[in-house]
Amino acid sequence: MSLTSTSAGAHLPADIDIARRIAAGDQDELQRLMRVHNQRLYRTARSILRDDAEAEDAVQESYLLAYKAMAQFRGDASLSTWLVRIVANEALGRLRKRSRSADLIQLSGAVFPMGDDAEPNMADISAEQPEQAAVRAQMRRLLEAKIDQLPDAFRTVFVLRAVEEMSVEEAGVCLGIPAATVRTRYFRAKGLLRESLAREMDFSMQDAFKFDGERCDRIVRSVLERLNAAAEPTG
């Protein structure tokens, strides 16, 4: 896909103005652009590469590519969509270089066979107790791990739709696939994620409110001591 090609959409004067200022060398505007889009682009790259460091590198390289092509931005789609398409292509290119013999993500092709197997938007947790914050962080890590286990074609769609809250149409433009395909893959991704989390819960349920080890010994010891004390003759 050409960096300057975008899907038909609304003409966006504000985005065009931003692009023109950046193309003219306005580094303050470039910095604002990066701070606005960093998280979305990182999540997109991370969903494809499944590697934190490489995703960061892909985002940096994508910004450089976008900067070189900024003067040709025409606003046929939003600047955000344009940037996501660039970072998705960059991440896919890195994936191909990583393993030429491996199966590649087919974002515009057939859905991958399902395997057996966000970061969610989080409110400010500064007022939370440490225990609550720790539990939330643990749940976030579990969710991230389960998203990583989604089949490749489903994972990127899920991240854009559920985590980045893109519309079906916007996600389709970013990935170059029909809206109907986005809906299908998102539905299947949610189903797989629910099944995976349910299995994790089933396994964890067996360990809930466990009462063994020292606590068990303490109860046994205490009861025996009380029984023995009660059995001792008085006077």
Write the topology of this structure:
Layout lengths: L12 H11 L3 H23 L2 H18 L9 H20 L31 H19 L3 H12 L4 H8 L3 H27 L7 H19 L4
Helix pairs in contact: 2-3, 2-4, 2-6, 3-4, 4-7, 6-8, 7-8
Describe the structure.
The protein is an all-alpha fold and 235 residues long. Among the domains are: 13-98, Orthogonal Bundle (Rna Polymerase Sigma Factor, Chain: A); 130-205, Winged helix-like DNA-binding domain superfamily/Winged helix DNA-binding domain (Arc Repressor Mutant, subunit A), CATH 1.10.10.10. Helix content is 67%, strand content 0%. The chain has nine helices and no strands. It has helices at residues 13-23, 27-49, 52-69, 79-98, 130-148, 152-163, 168-175, 179-205, 213-231. Helix 2 (27-49) crosses helix 3. The longest helix has 27 residues, at 179-205. It is elongated and about 100 Å long. Mean pLDDT is 77; it is low at 1-11 and 101-126.
SSE order, as H and E? Answer: HHHHHHHHH
SS content category? mainly alpha
Task: Give the beta-strand count.
Answer: 0
* CATH fold descriptor of one domain: Rna Polymerase Sigma Factor, Chain: A
Q: Give me the CATH superfamily of one domain.
A: RNA polymerase sigma factor, region 2, helix turn helix motif
Rg over alpha carbons: 26 Å
Total helices: the number is: 9
User: What is the typical, i.e. mean, pLDDT?
Assistant: 77
Helix content: 55-70%
Tell me the fraction of residues in β-strands, as a range. under 5%
**End-to-end CA span:** 96 Å
Largest sheet: none
Low-confidence stretches: 1-11, 101-126
Q: Tell me what the CATH architecture of one domain is.
A: Orthogonal Bundle
Overall spatial form: elongated
CATH class division of one domain:
Mainly Alpha
